[in-house]
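Design job #97: recover the sequence.
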């Protein structure tokens, strides 16, 4: 019986031979006879099994075909002669069926050409061997790291790609990912949708429930990204390289520099975050991560939409913010609904942040994405009052007196906040704009 190493080697050699010509029993048999020697008795059965499993040559799945051959040898070859490779065909790959108009990329070389780099640079940027995790020097890493302390939560780690990798990721986003549609329930990072459309779906609902996904980007693994890219039609090797380009494993030294939280209630969550960051995941800071998160969460959105439909409710998602709204009768089964949502999330490799689960009835204020949705779009009263006070004090004491955060263009910052309020409540926006117009900007 062939050992595992021999089966794996024979699988790769025979898969390359099978894919190097016509997809017929005669063609496969002739090329296999040229590829290995002596001609084993199990070859005829293998050829029949391959043709039965694959009606068309799987040019985009050479590794899968090799694994299929190895599994066949383990299951049916039994004892056989010592077979050695006689002729090794160069592996070939080709796009599979593409359900969306993504650009064709048949080989890793084609991917390098699209990105404007050579094969060596692509290998460094994709880092499929995980060198980033143990790189001894910051100069050797593809990412820089920064962390932000948060009250009542573990730190937020920012994984910021360096210029060359970031440029490659932007090309992947602009040339490839933009052609793959997100689910209709996803409102974040989707053209034509926004936090405003996310909130609009829940205006006037008797009951609004909000669920939050814990460490969303860090929980979306390279395997899920690879699945999206394979579904898009990219060959295994190309999907593997693309996955490496858009995922990351945080350098162990960078994580070690972050102090664990003092609050013992947060230490387990801090440890969970560390474990997630130590495996390939979507980095928070890469331009491709928001769009890929939507694509990786397509099944979650589909299942949650189905659940909401059965309950006579509505579901939307903005990033890691899951919202379900519907009739007051939902209140009678909140425990079961929460359990179901948690189970769906767990099936998708996610975990709900229980501390952020919120139930909002029409008797109180209902907020979705920071927008009040009880009867219409509106800004929260305290947010409006806070901005009004800033504008009032800026008019009395000068704008610099209110720029406590040191915003570089404070004037544009205030105009942006006023425009946001006006988009939700035009009357309030007009009152704020009148206060803004009273500010003297010439004394700066």
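Job complete. Output follows.
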């Amino acid at each position: 019986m062939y050992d595992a190493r021999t089966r794996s080697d024979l699988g790769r050699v025979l898969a390359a031979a099978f894919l190097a010509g016509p997809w017929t029993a005669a063609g496969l048999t002739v090329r296999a006879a040229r590829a290995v020697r002596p001609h084993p008795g199990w070859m005829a059965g293998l050829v029949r099994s391959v043709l039965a499993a694959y009606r068309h040559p799987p040019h985009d799945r050479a590794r899968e075909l090799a694994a299929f051959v190895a599994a066949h040898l383990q299951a049916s070859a039994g004892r056989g002669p010592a077979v050695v490779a006689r002729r090794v065909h160069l592996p070939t790959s080709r796009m599979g069926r593409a359900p969306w108009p993504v650009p064709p990329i048949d080989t890793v070389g084609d991917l390098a050409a699209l990105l404007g780099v050579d094969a060596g640079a692509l290998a460094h940027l994709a880092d499929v061997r995980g060198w980033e995790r143990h790189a001894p020097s910051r100069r050797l890493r593809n990412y820089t790291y920064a962390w932000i302390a948060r009250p009542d939560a573990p730190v937020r780690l920012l994984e910021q790609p360096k210029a060359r990798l970031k440029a490659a990721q932007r090309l992947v986003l602009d040339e490839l990912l933009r052609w793959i549609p997100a689910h209709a329930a996803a409102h974040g990072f989707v053209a034509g949708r926004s936090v405003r459309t996310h909130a609009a779906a829940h205006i006037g609902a008797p009951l609004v429930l909000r669920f939050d996904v814990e460490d969303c980007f860090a929980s979306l693994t390279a395997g899920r990204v690879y699945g999206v890219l394979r579904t898009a039609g990219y060959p295994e090797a190309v999907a593997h390289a693309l996955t490496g380009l858009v995922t990351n494993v945080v350098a162990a030294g960078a994580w070690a520099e972050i102090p664990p939280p003092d609050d013992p209630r947060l230490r387990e969550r801090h440890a969970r975050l560390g474990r997630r960051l130590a495996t390939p995941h979507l980095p928070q800071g890469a331009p491709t991560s928001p769009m890929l998160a939507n694509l990786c969460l397509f099944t979650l959105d589909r299942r949650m939409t189905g659940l909401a439909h059965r309950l006579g409710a509505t579901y939307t998602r903005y990033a890691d913010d899951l919202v379900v709204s519907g009739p007051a009768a939902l209140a009678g089964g909140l425990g079961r609904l929460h359990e179901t949502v948690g189970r769906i999330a767990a099936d998708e490799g996610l975990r709900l942040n229980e501390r952020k689960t919120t139930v909002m009835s029409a008797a109180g204020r209902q907020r979705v994405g920071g927008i009040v949705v009880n009867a219409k779009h509106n800004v929260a009263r305290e947010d409006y009052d806070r901005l009004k006070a800033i504008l009032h004090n800026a008019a009395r004491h000068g704008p610099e007196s209110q720029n406590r955060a040191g915003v570089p263009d404070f004037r544009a910052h205030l105009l942006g906040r006023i425009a946001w309020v006006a988009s939700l409540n035009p009357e309030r926006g007009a009152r704020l704009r009148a206060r803004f117009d009273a500010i003297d900007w010439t004394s700066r």
